[in-house]
Every structure is written in C-alpha cells, then in structure tokens.
Amino acid sequence: MDIGQDFFHRIRIVLIRTTEAGNIGSAARAMKTMGLSQLVLVKPAEFPNAKATARASGADDLLADAMIVDVLEQALEGCDLIMGTSARLRDLPWPLLSPHEAAEKAWEYRQMQGDVAVVFGSECSGMTNEEMDHCHFQIHIPANSEYSSLNLAASVQIIAYEMRMVQMLSIGEGIRQFKEILATRDEMKYFYDHFFDVMRRVGYYRPEQPKLLRRRVMRLFNRSMMTHPEIQIMRGFLGMIDTKLNEK
Amino acid sequence: MDIGQDFFHRIRIVLIRTTEAGNIGSAARAMKTMGLSQLVLVKPAEFPNAKATARASGADDLLADAMIVDVLEQALEGCDLIMGTSARLRDLPWPLLSPHEAAEKAWEYRQMQGDVAVVFGSECSGMTNEEMDHCHFQIHIPANSEYSSLNLAASVQIIAYEMRMVQMLSIGEGIRQFKEILATRDEMKYFYDHFFDVMRRVGYYRPEQPKLLRRRVMRLFNRSMMTHPEIQIMRGFLGMIDTKLNEK
After folding, report:
1. Which residue in B58, B230, B241 is closest to A220 by CB distance?
2. Does residue A93 or residue B229 have the better pLDDT?
3. Cβ–Cβ below 8 Å for A142 and B157
4. Quick check: A172 contacting B, CB < 8 Å?
5. Within chain B, which residue ranges are assigned CATH 1.10.8.590?
6. Is A243 on the interface with B (CB under 8 A)?
7. How confident is the model over B62-67, as a mean pLDDT?
8. Looking at the complex, does the CB of residue B224 fall below 8 Å from at least one CB of chain A?
9. Is residue A130 less than 8 Å (CB to CB) from chain B?
10. Where are the beta strands (DSSP E) in B87-228?
C-alpha cells in the first residue's frame, strides 16, 4: 500500500450524536469520494437506518464498517492527532486551523504510528467544551457570517477534499494531464517565422518597426504552451493564406 | 460594497438539467454558507419544488431569486470567464484546473465587468462536449478513482469554499494585478467569428466538417486568456488578410 493510500485510511472521521441518519449516509459518501474509509459514530440517534444507506449511495461499505461507540474517548483510541471542527470561537480559544492547514497538519503526522481524528459535533449543538478538551486543534471552516449553517456532510466533504488535495500536491501528482505533445522550441520558431512572414505579406507587420507587436504576439502564443497538433493547425492555416496570396 | 462581497455576488453557479430537486436546495445552502448568491438553473427537471426548499434550509432566498432558463447560452450571458466542472477527461482535453486554481482564476477576473460562471452538469450524465465548448476551463475536482461519485451539492460546496478561501487569503495581502484588460466574452466571440471566417475564405476550414478543428482553435486561444490589446492585434491582422483577399 503506497503512502498516499495509507494516509487516507488512517484518517478517522468521528461524528458525535448525529441526529439525522441521512447525514451519516451523506458523510460516508463524501468521505469515500475522497478516499477516506474510517467512520466512527458516537451515540448516533438512529443507526443503522435506511435513510443513511440510501444517502450513502454506493458508500454503504463505510456504514457497514463504521465503529459505533458510547463516548468520545473510545472513538479516539489510537489517535495521535485530534482535531475538532467548530464554527464557535471559545472563551479560551483553541489553536485554530483552516481546513487546508488541518490537512497539512495531518500530512505531517503520517509517519506517526497512530491515526488522525477529525471530530464533528451534532447538527444542532456542535461540540461542547468538554469534547473540545480532547482536541489538539480546532478546525474552523470559513463561512458567511450571516449564514454559516454548513450541512454536516458538507463540512465532512470540505475536510476530506483538503486531505486529498494535500496528499496529491505532496506526492507531486498534479492534476494536469495534457496528453498531447507540446511543441518543440524549433517548431515554435518556424511557426513565428511563418506567422510574421504572412503578417508582413498582408501589410500588417513591418520588420523595421519597433518590436512591440512581435513581442505581444509571441507572448500570447507562448503563454498558452502550444501543442504539436495546434502548431500544425496554425501552420496549415498560414500555408493556405500563402497559397491564396500567391494566386494573385 | 467591498471588493470581497462584490466578488462573491459576481460568481454565478449554473446547474444544467438537475434531476433531483433536493440537490438544488442543498446546492443553494452550500452557496450561501460561503457567501455566493447567484444561482441559474438550465432546464431543471422539477422546480420550484418543496424538497428543494426543505433542503435549502434558510437559503431559500437563493431559490426565490434563481434564474431559470432553457439553454446554457442564456445562463452565460454577461459572463467573461466560464468554467465547467467535469470529472471526465475529454478526447480533446480542456485546460484543467483544480478547484483551488479555479478560485484563483476567478479572483484574477474580479476587476472585469462581467461575471464568472461555474457550470455543473446533471447528476447522471454530467456536461456534454457541446456544453464544455462554452467553457474556458474545465475544473476537475480530485476524487477517489474507485468511487468518484460526488454529490452535486458537495461539488458546489467545494467550489464555493475555495472561492471563499481565495478571497480570504487575498484580501489584505499583495494581490496579483493584471495590468492589461482581459478580453470580454463578446470580443472573444467576434474574434472567433472573424478567425473562422478567414479560415473558411482561404479554404482551410469547412463549417460542415466535424467540429474538432474549431474546438482545437478555441481551446488554444481560450487557454491563454487573451487580453483586449491582443484581440485588437489579431483582429487587425485578420482584417488585413480580408483586404488582400478582396483585392483579388
């Protein structure tokens, strides 16, 4: 198992006293889309439940494997890093992390023995101060101050997404997947020679003029990192203009 | 209105042919938690709908203000930057952005006149190639390759979250400024009309042919995010070719 997969499997999502079973299903789905698998439920109001299964929509294996416990302590056994999500700022403030920073923190902990827990309170009351006492950090998901009512599964989705992003960026797996071969430097040079030659022929470009026009055009095409097939299209087009001009 | 608020209000979330009304409600809630307000629905299967309102849970003002249109073009009127979310990689790939990069791109566009559209396809079939043709970029939300079934509202949540994050991080910090004005969508449209017309006149492009050539050319220029002066250069050049062809 490569380090990325192992990282995902060691992140534990802990949901405390979830009242809506549907939210547990949605949270499982959110987790699985990002590669997370460990779900722990602390005193769920209704579970197992058909609504949870329906909402999980293919992530029901996470529900079947979910650990169900009575108190938060049990959910956190074997964890080296514990982070609690809460919108509420406490009288005695916890060290605050954004979801992105929390994912970076989790990534730093990946060579530790234990797991990383991210804890979510109930839909209505969130996490109590006593529950926050177990946490090394508080994760604060930025939100509209006039309407900060994030759905539980939406919060899980954001955290899980950031975990996946940090893993992707860290193992150097960009998302860019241009399958086309980029144009070589020579191809670019011949393309520009051709382009400015046609520009000159139609009277738009005079080589003795200041170089600004030339530079602007090159900047435009350089910026888009032209591919080999694109160069062929442009050269084909320029060639046809040449032909038409020669016919005169 | 400060620049941050204005930024949020100019981001348009466009949902195409959404089949589940509940997802529209959840999407509205996801948007509002992050400060977004503009929702456009293209041919929703069922709307307005009680399930949508229930799921919106306090974000029903966004549903009431939602614009409902028949075709995607209408939804994109007045937009200068259009990004389509799709998990599918195309035969002819679009320039891919992560949600984070998409938010950065949107932020760069904030001093433009027009809006920024982020388009989401239907739950089952996603976005068609023809719908992607309207987009400057494809947003690819990273996901578990074995289970990439993100819920529609979860996808909206991630995009909206990244929009908020980029705004938070950018305000108060040194912000990258575009010194040149970017081309508007109309300018791009007239440029393409002109470009393909000249291509047709010299016999390189036949409109009845498969659309691949057209798509390739548009992808090339869209990718470089053309500026107003660059459009002027290209239009000037094309105009001179026209003149020469007319002289014959």
Report:
1. B230
2. B229
3. no
4. no
5. 185-247
6. yes
7. 97
8. yes
9. no
10. 96-97, 115-120, 137-139
Instruction: Report the share of chain B in percent with pLDDT over 70.
Output: 92
CA atoms of B25 and B158, how far apart (whole Å): 16
B37-63: per-residue pLDDT in tens? 999 999 999 999 999 999 999 999 999
Which residues have a Cβ under 8 Å from the Cβ of A78 and sit 6 or more positions away? A114, A115
CB-CB under 8 Å, A217 with B96: no
Q: How far are the Cα atoms of A49, A97, A228, B104 from residue A221, in angstroms, in the given order?
A: 57, 41, 13, 22
> How distant is the alpha carbon of residue A73 from its chain centre?
30
C-alpha B84/C-alpha B125 separation (Å) is 14
| A48-82 residue pLDDT tens | 999 999 999 999 999 999 999 999 999 999 988 89
* Half-sphere exposure (Cβ direction) of B213: Cα atoms closer than 13 Å: 16
More confident residue, A63 or A114: A63
First-to-last CA distance in chain A?
A: 68
Closest chain A C-alpha to B78 CA, distance in angstroms = 24
Reported as a single tens digit per residue, the pLDDT across B132-177 is 988 989 999 999 989 998 999 999 999 999 999 998 887 643 333 3
- Put simply, whether A86 touches B (Cβ < 8 Å) is no
Q: What angle do CA B140, B72, B46 make, to 5 degrees?
A: 95
For helices A185-201 and A228-247, the axis angle rounded to 10 degrees is 30
Interface pTM (ipTM) of the complex? 0.75
For the domain B3-170, what is the CATH code? 3.40.1280.10
What residue of A is the nearest CA neighbor of B244? A202
3-state secondary structure of B38: strand
Can you say whether residue A33 is alpha, beta or left, with left for phi > 0 and alpha for psi between -120 and 50 degrees? alpha
Contact (CB<8Å) A224/B223: yes
Fold of the CATH domain B185-247: Helicase, Ruva Protein; domain 3 (1.10.8)
| Range list for CATH 3.40.1280.10 in chain A | 3-170
**Is the Cβ of B216 closer than 8 Å to some Cβ of chain A?**
yes
Q: Is B57 on the interface with A (CB under 8 A)?
A: yes
Q: Which of A58, A142, A229 sits opposite B149 (nearest CB)?
A: A58
Record: contact B226-A204, CB cut-off 8 A? no
Structure token pair of residue B75: 């939804």
